[in-house]
Amino acid sequence: RKYKSWDVSLGWNLLPNETWMFGRAFKSDVYLLTGAGRTKFGGDNWFTINLGVGFRVFLTDWAAWRFEVRDHIFNRDIIGEDDRTNNIEYSTSASIYF
Q1: DSSP E strand stretches across the chain
Q2: Which of 9, 84, 88, 94 measures 20 to 30 Å from 50, CA to CA?
Q3: Which of 40, 36, 44, 39 is closest to 77 using CA atoms?
Q4: What CA–CA distance (Å, rounded) separates 2 from 40?
């Protein structure tokens, strides 16, 4: 079976800060995310809400590392009974700024 999802999210930079690692200070951010979208699986299609939190640290002036945790929440019908589903997503990425 195929699983597809998409969402549009908004973020709020909750804690712009500095993080101390390896004896140095790095600019960092803790941010909250919320959004909405669709989830398709097993021939069904559901409205989905997502909530999350992220951490971003700038390793240099031009490079950053990001880690996020999101919960994709939707109600699905299982044998005639609605059931809330929570799909937890963990992601990490590297960014290069020009």
Answers
A1: 3-21, 24-41, 44-58, 63-78, 81-96
A2: 94
A3: 44
A4: 8
* The pLDDT value given to residue 51: 98
State how far the alpha carbon of 98 is from the alpha carbons of 18, 55, 63, 92, 94, in Å.
22, 21, 9, 20, 13
Q: Round to whole Å and give the CA distance between 13 and 78.
A: 38
pLDDT digits (tens, 9 = 90+) for 12-26: 999 888 888 888 999
**DSSP state for residue 42 in the 8-state scheme:** T
Separation between Cα atoms, residue 47 and residue 45, nearest integer Å: 7
> Residues 46, 39: contact at Cβ < 8 Å?
yes
User: pLDDT under 50 in the chain at which residues?
Assistant: none
